[in-house]
Amino acid sequence: MQQKILDHYLEYGMFTYPGLYEDYFKSLPNDVREIGYLLRWSFIHRTTLDAGNKFTNSDLKFGDMKKVPWYRQAEDDNLVTAVAIIAELFRRDNRGLTKERLVKDKVVLTCRHLTILLASILKSKGIPTRVRSGFAGYWSWAKVSGDHWINQYWDKKERWVSIDVDGSFHDTGFDMYDIPEGKFEFSANAWLDVRQNKIDSKHFWNSDGTHGLVVVAWELFYDFHCLMNSEIIYLHHPKLVMYQEFGKLTESKLKEIDKLAELMLEPDENFSELQKIWETNKEYRLLKGGLL
Fold it and tell me: Which is nearest to 221 in space by CA: 112, 110, 134?
């Protein structure tokens, strides 16, 4: 691994910058699994809140949803940076990240937010870390592969270790803090498999119920931005893959995206080329959504 790549993944981006919480992050346990559990105890996934004490929370492992204030709802659009998330956790319980956090004081966030907070903590500790966006079909109840975000960190054995903090309380039959290769479907693989007719695009779903190649396109560009340390929010996309625009793409334009996906299959080997695209391709980098 080239040192410049590891140095890149030690850098903070807009979303992972810890600000005045850097020393606090450094004071947290050094064991990645222990950090992950501290984060998971602090969060309620919005689908868990919606379902209440049923399905994956029938054993109340995420807490008694009846004790969550009635006005609490998904907070993804409010807490988009690591600093915002940890500040809100401290506001609700001044102990910060703690296993003893009451369910009423947890934040309601999804996988993307756990990944940026974990990345911020590990970078603070000098561990190269990146966020990845793709699909997970490894839940016991999953018949399709749903959009999902995980982390990768560079360990002492000089390899990228893939971990899923959001899913770490679920039984998948393998270690969520060292996900075996092939279990998580990276978006570049998904894109190329669909484009090469190896898999039906309907296999890939977004949490809002949308499925198909457009969903894979969203994850592909999330992942591209993540590889460049810019873990953009769900609402932001390059214009060409926004829902109302995607169907207008020509085959020539789709083949251009194919080339990006091919590079992303091996992001370390192709790092310089990906970085050049990042620095020069306005169509892939500039975003639309909200006020953008």
Answer: 134
Q: Report whether 65 contacts 48 (CB < 8 A).
A: yes
pTM of the predicted model as reported, rounded to 2 decimal places:
0.97
At how many degrees (to 10) do helices 111-124 and 82-92 cross? 100
Q: What is the pLDDT of residues 219-246, one digit of tens each?
A: 999 999 999 999 999 999 999 999 899 9
Distance (Å, rounded) from C-alpha 239 to C-alpha 152? 28
DSSP-derived letter for residue 79 is -
User: Could you tell me the two tokens for 108?
Assistant: 């309601």
C-beta separation of 42 from 106 below 8 A: yes
Alpha helices in 93-212 (DSSP H): 111-124, 187-195
Query: CA-to-CA distance for 133 and 264, rounded, in angstroms?
Result: 12
Domain locations along the chain: 3-288
CA separation for the pair 116, 39 (Å, rounded): 11
